[in-house]
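Q: what sequence does this backbone want?
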């Protein structure tokens, strides 16, 4: 029997996780990434316990835990620092796994399985299916045939556009500024969301004395020049409390702040024929639950599971979509509901968080304590 050939398009969290999940399979796996190099540090993220459980299966959880910071608490504050609610994450997640704050670069390194086989600076230009094979052309004038192609190439997925279809990304009404700073603000004892009027600022320990900061502003889509970015960000969040100011004062350079619109997919798209989607390519959502990367890791694990047990690739893709759809739909719905909550007038939002923020947090995440 000829070797099964798989192409993974996208060398981010989703693609690297799937590459890791398939490392012991007898299949030949190619991985391509449109960016031009491996030094794509990005900013940070939280690898929540449901994703850490998946990474245990993939053999990468210990490396992720070593590279990041274990986080025990999650809190909401008003913009001056008054407590709205505090959550003990151990009470929410029990024995599922640790909650880890980590830089994106460190997570990528932990997910790389042995020698890096990724072809950087390579984009897909066409995807054609015929007679149980997928023909792919690349922008370096090469082409190849595969038994399975997996689009792990993000919200603006070329694979989705070329071979699967589905909704185009929509602007979520928010701009985000993400960065890392070599500081641990004195009162930061976990993840904190500082909520203002039409904006919030989040702080998350990311390991080795580094903090991940993310500012979010509800506004029309805008173009944010790099020059002067730190100064403008400090002005936008000038009324926020001391830990936010300490963080912003420690961001080294304008170029260290990544600014982008929050985009999401109004619907999901899972597969067509022998082309599958995982991560944001399939179901980009509001980031308010911090589960985008976590869902991508789970997608990779579940897809690899089904490929290993189904009688053929089409059956595996159907089973993959059936398993993932309800869980992803829940996270998408809850993320959108949380977005709507934080955009309420401050008086109403803050009262809701004081009255039942802890209970709502438990209800929101409890379904994810079950295996995917």
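A:
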């Amino acid at each position: 029997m000829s070797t099964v050939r798989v192409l993974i398009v996208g060398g981010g969290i989703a693609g690297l996780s799937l590459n890791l999940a398939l490392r012991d399979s007898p299949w030949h796996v190619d991985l391509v990434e449109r960016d031009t190099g491996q030094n794509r540090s990005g900013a940070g993220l939280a690898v929540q316990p449901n994703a850490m459980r998946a990474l245990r299966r993939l053999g990468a959880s210990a490396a992720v835990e070593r590279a990041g910071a274990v986080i025990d608490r999650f809190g909401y504050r008003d913009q001056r620092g008054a407590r709205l609610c505090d959550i003990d994450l151990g009470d929410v997640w029990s024995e599922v796994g640790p909650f880890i704050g980590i830089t994106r670069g460190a997570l990528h390194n932990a997910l790389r399985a042995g020698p890096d086989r990724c072809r950087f600076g390579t984009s897909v230009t066409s995807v054609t299916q015929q007679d149980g094979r997928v023909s792919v052309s690349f922008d370096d004038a090469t082409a190849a045939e595969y038994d399975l192609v997996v689009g792990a190439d993000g919200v603006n997925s070329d694979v989705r556009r070329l071979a699967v279809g589905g909704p185009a990304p929509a602007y979520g009404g928010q701009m985000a500024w993400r960065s890392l700073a070599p500081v641990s603000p004195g009162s930061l004892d976990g993840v904190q969301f500082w909520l203002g009027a039409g904006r919030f600022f989040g702080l998350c320990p990311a390991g080795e004395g580094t903090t991940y900061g993310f500012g979010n502003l509800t506004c029309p889509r805008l173009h944010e020049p790099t020059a002067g970015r730190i100064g403008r960000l400090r002005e936008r969040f000038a009324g926020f409390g001391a830990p936010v100011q300490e963080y912003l004062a420690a961001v080294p350079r304008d170029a260290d702040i990544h600014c982008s619109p929050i985009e999401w997919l109004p619907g999901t798209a899972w597969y067509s024929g022998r082309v599958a989607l995982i991560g944001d390519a399939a179901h980009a959502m509001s980031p308010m639950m911090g589960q985008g990367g976590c869902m991508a890791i789970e997608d990779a694990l579940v897809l690899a599971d089904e490929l290993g047990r189904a009688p053929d690739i089409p059956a595996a893709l159907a089973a993959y979509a059936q398993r993932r759809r309800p869980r992803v739909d829940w996270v998408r719905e809850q993320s959108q509901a949380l977005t709507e909550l934080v955009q309420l007038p401050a008086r109403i939002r803050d009262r809701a968080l004081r009255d039942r923020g802890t209970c709502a947090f438990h209800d929101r995440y409890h379904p994810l304590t079950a295996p995917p």
